[in-house]
Fold:
Amino acid sequence: MPTKKPRATITFQPHHYELLKRWSELQGISLSALLGEFLGAAYPAMSRTVALMEAAREAPRQVREGLALALDQVEGELRERVEGVEHAFDALDSVVREGSDDEPV
Structure:
């Protein structure tokens, strides 16, 4: 039975596609299911972002300028958090590869 869900065509950079394909194979799910999981996890943040963008579009210029400054600050804070997560993954990679001749991914 065909799905009633909306569909989209996506064009990937080759290295993005290869990584996603490997990930989906390791999980034992289709690439479509993997991307659906990613979007499902990102949906709350994306919804908030769209709502903010819509509000900003209607806001006076002065409010938009203040929002831009606030977004710059949030971006800096998020970058710090992402770096912390990357360090945690590096530590996990070291544990997994301990005693192995494999190169880090």
About this structure: The mean pLDDT is 88. The first helix runs from residue 14 to 27. The CA atoms of residues 44 and 50 lie 10 Å apart. The radius of gyration is 20 Å.
